[in-house]
Amino acid sequence: SDGSIRLHQMTSEYPLLQWNDSTKGQPIIALQWALTRPAVFFALDASSNIYIWDLLENDLLPVAKQTIPSEKVITMTLLGEPEKANGSLGIVLAKESGQIDIQYVKKKWALP
């Protein structure tokens, strides 16, 4: 609820990494690991900002931020085929009006 993200290992109650205030205080409403690239995850905050984290490139800050300006995004999910080496990865955005958008991610964050 405060924009903090914690990375846990299943065998410990304590986080391996923690990023406080990663969304400048906005609640995170969805977070998902990339299906095609294990070191990448995406976070959506309550202000319709999508943050892309690539832990191999930078483990302190997101590597990109994209604001969806037209309408409030209420949730997101990712689509891709991890068994295929083409690295195609999409973000499905559900907007408040009921509209669904699919956006494809740059190859550098999608390739295995």
Automatic annotation (TrEMBL):
<dbReference type="GO" id="GO:0045503">
    <property type="term" value="F:dynein light chain binding"/>
</dbReference>
<dbReference type="GO" id="GO:0045504">
    <property type="term" value="F:dynein heavy chain binding"/>
</dbReference>
<dbReference type="GO" id="GO:0042073">
    <property type="term" value="P:intraciliary transport"/>
</dbReference>
<dbReference type="GO" id="GO:0005868">
    <property type="term" value="C:cytoplasmic dynein complex"/>
</dbReference>
<dbReference type="InterPro" id="IPR036322">
    <property type="entry name" value="WD40_repeat_dom_sf"/>
</dbReference>
<protein>
    <submittedName>
        <fullName>WDR60 protein</fullName>
    </submittedName>
</protein>
<dbReference type="InterPro" id="IPR042505">
    <property type="entry name" value="DYNC2I1"/>
</dbReference>
<dbReference type="GO" id="GO:0005929">
    <property type="term" value="C:cilium"/>
</dbReference>
